[in-house]
TrEMBL record:
Any GO BP: response to stress
InterPro entries listed in its UniProt record: HTH_MarR-typ (IPR000835), MarR/SlyA-like (IPR039422), WH-like_DNA-bd_sf (IPR036388), WH_DNA-bd_sf (IPR036390)
Pfam family, one: MarR_2
GO molecular function: DNA-binding transcription factor activity
Top-rank lineage group of the source organism: Bacteria
Gene3D superfamilies, sorted: Winged helix-like DNA-binding domain superfamily/Winged helix DNA-binding domain
Name the UniProt record assigns to this protein: Winged helix-turn-helix transcriptional regulator
PANTHER family: MARR FAMILY REGULATORY PROTEIN (PTHR33164:SF99), TRANSCRIPTIONAL REGULATOR, MARR FAMILY (PTHR33164)
Signal peptide interval: none
Biased composition (Polar residues): 1-11
Family matches, as PROSITE patterns: HTH_MARR_2
Boundaries of every HTH marR-type domain copy: 29-165
Length: 183
């Protein structure tokens, strides 16, 4: 049987470990990636039900709407959407069909390429997004502010509009010893 006193009960890659202990198992880049994933997961959890309530679409369909809302006025090609979302084209085809059926997007043949499909927002989608944007932005802010411990993501908080990046606007976060932008 191995001597348990030789090994710490706290893995080296968890927050709160003593600096004198062995170095973290994960390099900073992977730890940052894990923090980003945690932040994205927290945001998605906050948004999932709110998006369904306010817009009547799934979270994945909402992502398509957001890409189109933030893209060129004439829309995006299906291949561009699939690439940006990292989704298979077949899954995207279903989502786009649902959005088109709901009257939120139009699908047309891409100019100069009869095989390409151009997708654009309808006026109805633009109106719904404008009406829901404050509520959805609040859900994003709440999710980011709620990150704690290992999944604390100061960088994500700093990305929030209105977050000042000055030393005076940073205050210690209770229980973590880290700093965060004041809400």
């Amino acid at each position: 049987m191995a001597d348990s006193s030789a090994h710490s009960s706290t893995p080296a890659d968890l927050p709160g470990r003593d600096a004198a202990e062995e170095p973290a198992l994960l390099p900073p880049e992977l730890r940052a990636w894990m923090g980003l994933l945690a932040a994205a997961g927290a945001i998605e959890q906050q948004l999932r039900s709110r998006v369904k309530e306010t817009l009547g679409v799934s979270h994945d369909e909402f992502l398509v709407l957001c890409l189109l809302a933030d893209g060129p006025a004439d829309g995006l090609r299906m291949t561009q959407i699939a690439e940006r979302l990292g989704r298979p084209k077949t899954r995207l085809t279903y989502q786009v069909a649902c959005l088109q059926h709901a009257g939120l997007i139009t699908r047309n043949t891409a100019c100069g390429d009869r095989r390409g499909i151009q997708v654009a927002l309808t006026d109805k989608a633009r109106r719904l997004l404008r009406e829901a944007s404050c509520s959805l932005a609040e859900a994003v802010s709440r999710a980011i502010e709620g990150l704690e411990g290992q999944h604390d993501c100061t960088v994500m908080r700093a990305l929030l509009p209105g977050a000042a990046n000055t030393e005076e606007s940073l205050s210690p976060r209770p229980g973590t010893g880290r700093k965060r932008a004041a809400p």
